[in-house]
Amino acid sequence: MYFRQFNEPPKKIVENGKAHFGTFSSVSSRLDIKGMRSPYAGIPLPALISNVRIKSRLTYTFNLGDFIGQVEFRDFKIFGLAEVIFWNKETGKRNSYHTVMPAPRRFVPTKTTKAICACYQRNRRIRLFWEDNHDFFKCEFFVKGDKVRPSAKGKMISMRKDELHTDTMFVNPAPTSSRCSATWFSTMKIKGSLHTFTEKKTQEHKVEDGIALVSMNRAYYKFHTESNLVKGIGEVRSKNILFSITTANIDAADSEKYNNNILITDNTITTLPPVVITHPFGTDKNWIIQDTEGMIDLTFSPVSSQSRDLNLLIMRTTSKTIFGTFEGVLLTKDGEKINLKKFPGIVSKNLVRS
């Protein structure tokens, strides 16, 4: 059975030019990876140049009532992206809204104890904010529609100390010890509402219970960085099941020891082994997610997808986000089999050239 040891998180992720690599049972007060010594080919570049190569991503994935979706901020230093996307789980109907943010308003925070990440454009008001002292995590958005899609408004809140709450942190070489990637995962129960509306019609949704998975990643990117992200979030036999599985070309060379793959069943955490993700007939057909330890054997069937291709200055980013369902088996650290059937989830395929 695959196993990774949880350790206590360091006060600082990077000290004296080196990172504290490992799997941690909680999270440091800051998810900051600046200060790695000569992170690119051993060349002692000025810190200003090395820090520009650090890219950040903050994602709030939720399953609430009829809907599954995510709110995401991506920080590329020279610009940022904010996106709200959600699907009706029964019909597969998609609503997506995104905007490009200029440099002064696009930073993903480093603090994990108290922070805000927001877009305040007139037609795109999106906020994620949290505070340990007052024990909450909130997601709020108002996004204006057009002739094709309705406007949407959502508000979700979680008490950080609920019975589903977990915090974990992974600090991995990316791909070697001269560079690093740090990821914070937090799971929580949520209570909230989401509704769409036009000038003629409002579709009200009452306050409902749900679950959410928050992930924040900060990494030294290559000039050509590719990644696949797989997330499942739902219930099986009255148990809350959340999992996140990732592959990327900045994964650690020793991916058995260092990876971001995780499974949460209620508040029990299982670290997962590295996987191989394939989609032999294209991204709009079935995805196969398997490992060599017998803990992960999943098939993802796409239902509805959203593609985005942006060329800005010296950077190009391509992303495809897909809602669908999982079939297959996951194994917990205690050997419990979790059989998934029509289990909701979201996968994405990303490419950044810079």
Return Rg in Å. 19 Å
Biggest β-sheet strands, sense, barrel: 13 strands, antiparallel
Structural class: mainly beta
Instruction: Count the DSSP helices.
Output: 1
Could you characterize what this model shows?
By secondary structure, the protein is mainly β. Helix content is 2%, strand content 58%. The protein has one helix and 24 strands. Strands 3, 4, 5, 6, 7, 8, 9, 10, 11, 12, 13, 14 and 15 form a 13-stranded antiparallel β-sheet that branches. Strands 19-18-17-16-24-23-22-21-20 form a nine-stranded antiparallel β-sheet, with no helix packed on it. Strands 1-2 form a two-stranded antiparallel ribbon. β1 and β2 form a beta hairpin.
Task: Provide a short characterization of the protein structure.
The protein is mainly β and 354 residues long. Helices cover 2% and strands 58% of the residues. It is globular.
What's the helix and strand layout?
Elements: E1 14-15, E2 18-19, E3 22-24, H1 47-52, E4 54-64, E5 67-75, E6 80-88, E7 94-101, E8 114-121, E9 124-131, E10 136-143, E11 151-159, E12 166-173, E13 180-197, E14 202-203, E15 208-220, E16 224-236, E17 239-248, E18 262-265, E19 268-271, E20 276-278, E21 287-290, E22 296-312, E23 315-331, E24 337-353
Antiparallel strand pairs: 1-2, 3-12, 4-5, 4-15, 5-6, 6-7, 8-9, 9-10, 10-11, 11-13, 12-13, 13-14, 13-15, 16-17, 16-24, 17-18, 18-19, 20-21, 21-22, 22-23, 23-24
